[in-house]
TrEMBL record:
Ranges that cross the membrane: 25-48, 60-79, 91-117, 129-151, 197-215, 227-244, 256-275, 302-321
Keywords for the protein's UniProt record, in alphabetical order: Cell membrane, G-protein coupled receptor, Membrane, Olfaction, Receptor, Sensory transduction, Transducer, Transmembrane, Transmembrane helix
Organism name: Sus scrofa
InterPro entries xref list: GPCR_Rhodpsn (IPR000276), GPCR_Rhodpsn_7TM (IPR017452), Olfact_rcpt (IPR000725)
Molecular-function annotations in GO: G protein-coupled receptor activity; odorant binding; olfactory receptor activity
Short name of any one Pfam family annotated for the protein: 7tm_4
Cellular component aspect of the GO annotation: plasma membrane
UniProt xrefs under PROSITE patterns: G_PROTEIN_RECEP_F1_1, G_PROTEIN_RECEP_F1_2
Domain of life: Eukaryota
Chief localisation class: membrane
Similarity field: Belongs to the G-protein coupled receptor 1 family.
Protein name as annotated: Olfactory receptor
């Protein structure tokens, strides 16, 4: 029976992207490089915003959380994905699969909601600059962020609970490179209508409301093209993958799209939003100058300090030897 088969599934096996050895090495190198750039860019942006008091504004507050979401989202999928490219054993425990999906879904939802919140912030800054500090106070910003995190976690928990209560009778092999709803629904022998309804109702609401909110805020002006670009790319790929019937799923096609939004988009976000910004450029230049000065003077100071420490240690040791 289905219930007995459900109990037998203790792990899933990823079939991956390719079985060609030469292609595997190329993909591993490419994925690792993209992930490292993503890690450095987003982590660097968070540190830069936290360190500079001039960037302690609502816009950069939301940008730091966007970078954090990108970092968590890509880390939930990336390392396991590119190590599986070369690994012989591509399995993941049942609980590990559920956890990977929960984390990735949570931060994907948070990013969707953050895009709408950032649009609202820019709308307030442009439409009513005099009251901007009141309408977007630190308390309001914190409440908006808390709301985004709570909704994201609640939505992810619902989808995770529904997906991992399905029966996987036929096989435990996932024709994909991470745990996601489309491949799990195709693998299941249960009725997945409730899962599909939940995706269309909850996830569809989050996606469409964030898109309509963004577009609604930007009808009056055309100064936020970078934000519109991000919304079009990120939301477009998610809509393509999730908001369609399971009968029309094409995992081979979805693999390419998923690669784009799991590694490429999180890497591009700091470039799209921040590196074009004059304040960020100015602070990056300051950081670059500090690093240059450290290379010139800091290294000498460190070597000087180390020499003093070595001399003191040597004198102490010499004194101990003489006493003995």
């Amino acid at each position: 029976s289905n219930s007995e088969n459900c109990l037998s599934v203790t792990e899933f096996i990823f079939l991956g992207i390719t079985s060609t050895l030469g292609m595997k090495v190329t993909l591993f190198t490419m994925f690792l490089l993209l992930y490292l750039i993503n890690l450095l860019a987003n982590l660097g942006m968070i540190i830069l915003i936290r360190m500079d008091p001039q960037l302690h504004t609502p816009m950069y507050f939301f940008l730091s959380h966007l970078s954090f979401s990108d970092l968590c989202y890509s880390t939930a999928i990336g390392p396991k994905m590119f190590f599986n490219v070369l690994a012989k054993n591509k399995s993941i425990p049942f609980f590990g699969c559920a956890l990977q999906f929960l984390i990735s879904c949570t931060f994907a939802d948070i990013e969707c909601l953050l895009l709408a919140v950032m649009a609202y912030d820019r709308y307030k800054a442009i439409s009513n600059l005099l009251l901007y500090t009141v309408s977007m106070s630190s308390r309001v910003c914190s409440l908006l962020m808390a709301g985004a995190y709570m909704v994201g976690m609640a939505d992810a928990l619902i989808h995770t609970t529904l997906a991992f209560h399905l029966c996987f009778c036929a096989s435990n092999e996932i024709n994909y490179f991470f745990c996601d709803i489309p491949p799990l629904l195709l693998l299941s022998c249960s009725d997945t209508q409730i899962n599909e309804l939940a995706i269309f109702a909850i996830y569809g609401f989050i996606e469409l409301s964030s898109i309509s909110g963004v577009l609604g805020r930007f009808k009056a002006f055309s100064t936020c093209t970078s934000h519109l670009t991000e919304v079009a790319i990120f939301q477009g790929t998610l809509l393509f993958i999730y908001l369609r019937p399971s009968s029309s799923y094409s995992l081979d096609q979805d693999k390419i799209t998923s690669l784009f939004y799991t590694l490429v988009i999180p890497m591009l976000n700091p470039l799209i939003y921040s590196l074009r910004n004059k304040h960020v450029k100015k602070n990056l230049q300051k950081l670059k100058t500090k690093l240059k000065n450290f290379k010139k003077d800091g290294f000498k100071d460190i070597m000087h300090m180390h020499t003093h420490v070595i001399i003191i240690v040597f004198i102490k040791l010499y004194g101990i030897v003489r006493e003995t």
